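Quiz preparation item.
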């Protein structure tokens, strides 16, 4: 029944045909009697009116290569030709043909010259037969006179040779193929010139069959109701296909897109070698690594390129973007889609698209109207994993396909290894079944004694038991790691405290010697009534109290300044006891020295001058009688931190005392120093407790809430009881509003306790 112009235009324009001339021709033909629904007749009519060029339909039309080469009169000219290479079984019998390729003279290796070579100017190749013919040219079998081997010679046909675009595309094919150095891409031996002056090239002669013939031979087994042999099994066919994928992945890495992948262009050699053939429609895309293609001119040349919007390729194996003529969008995903369609046929042994005409095939390819994979034999179901792999590789949206052909091939390899594929992730139950499949002996023994229902129940119980064991093992490992970390940090803190005690004793002894043996000199300028010309180092405060012994204060202050470098060295050593080799502030906040003569020394300056006589402070009174000791913690009124003094008497070896000194240690700094070691990452809070179980300082994460007040009891009574006994270890608690674990370790020099609190949910969470 005749169709109107709009319907015909809509039917043709998605595939690149259109323009004013096309509309005019269709209008004329409608006026002459209209068009029926025969697409082949429609294309023939367009060819007759020179709107498309050189249309040829072979018996296997869906396998023809379609090339739109140029625009004509606002429309488009198409060149559709069958270029498949016949299988070796269909070759002509080798005959000597007196047709030679006239190339550059080269040395020969047979007869005629003293060195055993051929005479200069003798032909390099002698044609002995024809391998196949196509619309673009002829592939012949030739003998290499110089190297005594058979090669394949591909010559450009006389019809195609008259088209500049065909000649350029032919030369481009040999140049690109020659630069793709891969075991699964047929090697090229040289670019030649035939006797008629047309281009030709020599390449390796592949003795074998195409994938199309392999598929046909495999299907013949099922037609005879036989099981295919090993050479035609699915595993073997997939192994051949993976080699082709490897070749395409290599080509894509070099920036080359094939654009005409199909079973007829994949060759299988006699020894299972696989070659990707016929790179005549390839495209070289710009890549950052331009050096991978040595011929820079080839990588950037546009000679013979099809104009944007043209359709190039084989309709039966086209990606949707290729079937719609979106040439600028063609890339590695397009080749991947074609490989997916080849995989479809390799598995099902049926063509991807069943269509009555070329345009019908293009329409289905443009929408990926692909039937669900179904084997030609009802007794051979298609694995769901393979169906999923094909579906993902042939998605309508290129971005939804695999990221690369390598990923596509890797998913097939996962299927062959019996692993879950990315295209169809396993459910939890399927993962269990795969694990059971790997433990075949245990599963087989279980199956012998149980019914099917019992097996399912036991498998579920085993899985739950395994998960429970894993959870319990994880909990034990995490708890043990936290206990070990807290113990290690407690030991480290204990060593640091002992080191600092040693440093303050050394500092006190050196200071006593400096003060005892100092001479009367002009006084260093100090705060208070004692004048003097000598400067005080930056960061140091010397303060004389009212009623101080002026002469003695002057002598001590001068002696201190003379020994300042030694004092600074010893003080820095004490501060670095907590640094662990890293940058940052030390928990030791300040050094204070109080002398009996009425002089106070501070470094570095933090809180300004004292308003009262420092000799009345408790730590000073206890220092002379108690020796080196740690005092009670106090609030730092300026910094808001908790400070604990470490005191030592300043006395000579003979027991003569001059005063006392103290290192003020920031308890907050102690916890910060421990936290920076990342040993307590899984703990939500860390505390230091005194011997009575009171909180000296705390470091609490934001989600854990506020820290208890200074010197308040720790909120878990069980921990207070353990601290009173001097224990170390861990206990579980609900004191913080959720199940938590408390890990604690004793710090012996001070009878302090280092505590870490970790939420069970966070401690035992799976990675």
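Solution:
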């Amino acid at each position: 029944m005749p169709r109107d112009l709009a319907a015909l235009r809509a039917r043709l324009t998605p595939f690149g045909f259109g323009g004013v001339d096309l509309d005019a021709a269709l209008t004329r033909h409608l006026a002459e009697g209209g068009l029926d629904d025969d697409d082949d007749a429609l294309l023939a009519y367009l060819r007759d009116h020179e709107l498309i060029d050189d249309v040829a339909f072979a018996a296997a039309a869906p396998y023809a290569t379609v090339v739109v080469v140029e625009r004509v009169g606002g429309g488009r000219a198409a060149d559709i030709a069958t270029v498949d290479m016949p299988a070796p079984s269909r070759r002509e019998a080798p005959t000597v043909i007196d047709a030679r390729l006239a190339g550059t003279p080269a040395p020969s290796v047979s007869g005629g010259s003293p060195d055993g070579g051929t005479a200069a100017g003798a032909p390099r190749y002698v044609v002995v037969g024809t391998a196949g013919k196509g619309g673009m040219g002829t592939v012949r079998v030739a003998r290499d006179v110089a190297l005594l081997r058979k090669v394949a010679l591909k010559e450009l046909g006389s019809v195609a040779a008259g088209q500049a675009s065909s000649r350029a595309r032919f030369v481009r094919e040999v140049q690109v193929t020659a630069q793709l150095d891969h075991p699964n891409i047929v090697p090229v031996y040289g670019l030649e010139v035939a006797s008629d002056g047309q281009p030709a090239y020599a390449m390796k002669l592949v003795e074998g069959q195409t994938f199309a013939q392999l598929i046909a031979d495999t299907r013949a087994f099922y037609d005879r109701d036989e099981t295919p042999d090993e050479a035609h099994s699915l595993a073997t066919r997939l192994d051949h296909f993976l080699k082709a994928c490897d070749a395409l992945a290599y080509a894509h890495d070099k920036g080359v897109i094939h654009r005409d992948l199909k079973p007829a262009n994949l060759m299988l050699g006699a020894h299972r070698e696989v070659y990707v053939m016929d790179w005549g429609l390839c495209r070289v895309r710009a890549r950052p690594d331009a050096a991978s293609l040595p011929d820079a001119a080839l990588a950037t040349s546009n000679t013979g390129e099809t104009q944007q919007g043209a359709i190039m390729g084989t309709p039966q194996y086209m990606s949707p973007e290729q079937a719609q003529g979106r040439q600028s969008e063609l890339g590695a995903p397009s080749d991947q889609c074609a490989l997916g369609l080849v995989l479809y046929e390799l598995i099902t042994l049926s063509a991807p698209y069943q269509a009555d005409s070329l345009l019908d095939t293009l329409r289905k390819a443009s929408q990926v109207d692909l039937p669900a994979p179904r084997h030609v034999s009802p007794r051979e179901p298609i694995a769901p994993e393979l169906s999923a792999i094909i579906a993902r590789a042939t998605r309508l949206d290129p971005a939804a396909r695999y990221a690369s052909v390598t990923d596509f091939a890797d998913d097939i390899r996962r299927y062959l290894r019996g692993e879950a594929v990315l295209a169809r992730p396993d459910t939890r139950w399927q993962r269990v079944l795969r694990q059971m499949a790997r433990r075949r002996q245990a599963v087989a023994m279980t199956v012998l004694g149980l019914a099917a229902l019992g097996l399912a129940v036991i498998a579920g119980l085993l899985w739950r038991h395994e998960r429970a064991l894993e959870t319990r093992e994880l909990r034990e490992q995490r708890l043990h790691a936290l206990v070990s970390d807290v113990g290690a940090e407690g030991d480290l803190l204990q060593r640091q405290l002992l080191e600092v005690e040693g440093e303050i004793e050394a500092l006190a002894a050196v200071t006593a010697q400096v003060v005892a043996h100092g001479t009367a000199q002009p006084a260093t300028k100090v705060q208070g009534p004692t004048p003097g010309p000598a400067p005080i180092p930056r960061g140091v405060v010397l303060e004389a109290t009212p009623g101080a012994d002026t002469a003695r204060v002057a002598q001590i202050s001068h002696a201190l300044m003379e020994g300042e470098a030694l004092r600074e060295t010893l003080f820095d050593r004490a501060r670095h006891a907590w640094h662990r080799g890293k940058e940052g502030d030390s928990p030791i906040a300040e050094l204070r020295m109080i002398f009996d003569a009425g002089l106070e020394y501070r470094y570095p300056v933090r809180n300004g001058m004292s308003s009262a006589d420092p000799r009345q402070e408790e730590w000073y009174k206890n220092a002379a009688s108690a020796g080196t000791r740690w005092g009670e913690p106090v609030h730092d009124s300026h910094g808001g931190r908790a400070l604990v003094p470490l005191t030592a008497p300043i006395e000579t070896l003979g027991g003569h005392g001059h005063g006392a000194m103290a290192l003020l240690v920031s308890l907050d700094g102690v916890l910060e120093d421990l936290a920076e070691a990342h040993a307590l990452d899984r703990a939500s809070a860390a505390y230091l407790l005194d011997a009575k179980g009171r909180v000296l300082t705390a470091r609490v994460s934001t989600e854990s809430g506020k820290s208890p007040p200074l010197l308040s009891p720790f909120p878990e009574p069980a921990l207070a009881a353990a601290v009173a006994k001097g224990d170390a270890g861990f206990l579980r608690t609900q004191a913080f509003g959720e199940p938590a674990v408390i890990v604690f370790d004793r710090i012996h020099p001070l009878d302090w306790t280092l505590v870490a609190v970790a939420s069970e949910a966070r401690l035992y969470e799976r990675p």
